Amino acid sequence: MRSYFTPILLAPLALAACGDPAPTYVDQAWVRLSPNKDMPSSGYFIAHGGDADTALRGVLTDYALKVEMHESMSEGGKMTMKPIESVPIPAKSKVAFAPGGKHLMLWGVNDTAIGRGKMTLTFLLANGDRLLVDAIIEKPGAAAPASAPNPDDHKAH
User: Which residues on neighbouring strands pair with residue 97, listed in sequence order?
Assistant: First the structure.
């Protein structure tokens, strides 16, 4: 006896195997406040590439007057820093913004955010995605959070 219901019963299993592609995401975000309110604070995080290449085009927040992406590097034996407009996030890779490398500079961090101990950052991706991530705020001179990105862990990426 032939069953006509078999294809219908197997359809949900076939659809379950066709999951959505893995998205790009950001975690381990934190901000170290500057000891001088007139100087910018620094922000760090790890961007995890999804199934497709994209790029980080910028970061926004309502809790600071201005945010820029920068990179520290050694040139001629001296450490220098320059702004960066875009950072590639290759598929299935990690890109660390960590002390001594790529980082955010945040001018005028809001006292409300400082009092709460966290601030929301909006990461703007080249694929049109906007990722909202809460960043822990650390006081000047405080050690990085245990979950903070370590630049030595991600130099190969």
Answer: 45
Could you tell me if 94 and 49 are in contact, meaning their C-beta atoms sit under 8 angstroms apart? yes
In order of 18, 49, 82, 89, 155, the CA distances from 126 in angstroms are 25, 12, 21, 10, 23
Between CA 27 and CA 44 the distance in angstroms is 10
Q: Is 151 exposed, middle or buried (0-12, 13-18, 19+ CB in 10 A)?
A: middle
Tokens of 157: 């990426």
At position 105, the amino acid (one-letter code) is: M
pLDDT for the residue 122: 98
Nearest to 46 by CA among 106, 121, 110: 121
Question: What's the predicted TM-score (pTM) here?
Answer: 0.80
The residues, ordered by sequence, that sit 6+ positions from 57 with a Cβ below 8 Å of its Cβ are: 85, 86, 124, 125, 126
Q: How far apart are CA 153 and CA 143, in angstroms?
A: 18
**Whether residue 3 has pLDDT greater than 60:** no
Copy the structure tokens of residue 57: 């085009």
